[in-house]
Amino acid sequence: MVCAVVLALAQAPYALIGRAAPDFTLRAAAGANVRLGEHRGEVVVLSFWSGGCGACRPQLAALDRSLATYASAGLAVFGIGVDDDPIRAREFAQHQRVSFPMLLDPQKSVGRAFEVDNLPMTVLIDRSGTVRYVLRDFSASSNEIYFRQLRALLNE
Amino acid sequence: MPYSPLMNPAVARRRRAAHAGAPAGLLLLLALAVTPLALAVPPVAPATAPPASTAGVPPADATTPPAASAGTPAADAAENPDTRGLDTEVQGLKKDAVDLNKDLFILEEELLFPANTQVAVFLSMDVGNFFALDSVQLRIDDKEVINYLYTPREVQALLKGGVQRLYLGNLKVGRHELVAYFNGQGPNDRPYKRGATIRFEKGVGAKYLELKIDDRQQKLQPEFVIKDWE
Hints:
The complex is a heterodimer of chains A (156) and B (230).
Chain A (H helix, E strand, L loop, with lengths): L1 H10 L13 E4 L5 E2 L7 E7 L6 H15 L4 E7 L4 H10 L6 E3 L4 H5 L7 E5 L5 E5 L4 H16 L1
Parallel strand pairs in A: 3-4, 4-5
Antiparallel strand pairs in A: 1-2, 1-5, 3-6, 6-7
Chain B lengths: L8 H11 L2 H13 L31 H5 L2 H40 L5 E8 L6 E9 L2 E7 L2 H8 L3 E8 L3 E12 L5 E12 L4 E10 L4 E9 L1
Parallel strand pairs in B: 1-7
Antiparallel strand pairs in B: 1-4, 2-3, 2-5, 5-6, 7-8
């Protein structure tokens, strides 16, 4: 039953594909505020996470590895925490040893704008600011798909 | 088919070449050989047979290599004026699109925010030695209208003399109160939050207010002022 729900979510169409990514400014757990619109010209990966999500930790680590490899090619990665409790979210963010900004969205305005329906959820945005791909889970196979899609966007 | 200014230049060039004489026909053949897009073009007669449009023109010398005539400077020069013309047309179209967008933007603003109810709040910064701006919250008549987070780039732009239109809205004629809360880092990098209030009279015309962040050198503190542009 659970598998069927997860599968249905993974296959559900994502309405934002092909559309301009909604712009936002968010506070980071550490460091300066981040505005998505300032990263036009880069391939942007947004990863939505929560402190209570088990698969989010390995996924954030995998994203960090991809950033280490492709940062020079114009990749920007942002983690977006959608926890209700900002203190808990901040603690979670500080415990992740990732090199990209971990943003906090306690009001979930960005989560709603990106229609987040599962965690972890990864959204890939191309250099022109258009949403191109979405991944609604994290596994070895989805990680392979992520890298394939990422390379395709970086090569454009 | 007529040429369109929006047509792909490569396709347009091939179509022009198809209507031209023998050297242009050779150019077309070259283009067909190197361009994958050429597969979509209907097949033409083989090189040995003169094209239909060149019936009145003597055929090209069989000893002349086709590449020689295609790559000559004369042939390039013949093409360049067309390309320049096309570029000019494209630039003209782009300018028209930008002008149209500007007109639509102004029209939209005039409709959404008519001059008799319009209120606009601007923000400017000067020096910024004692205050690093992080966010501004605006409340008009005790109702939050905007909560704006600033990135380092935006703060840099403000420090370079930029003026930001923070809020644009509508208010009815009468007395109103605006409260602005400024968040950031104050002297000694400590979290710093200050507020400023102004009571203003909204008349029939548009109302412009400016939030000004300045350094007060004597007190070594930032200063927050709201100016009413009469």
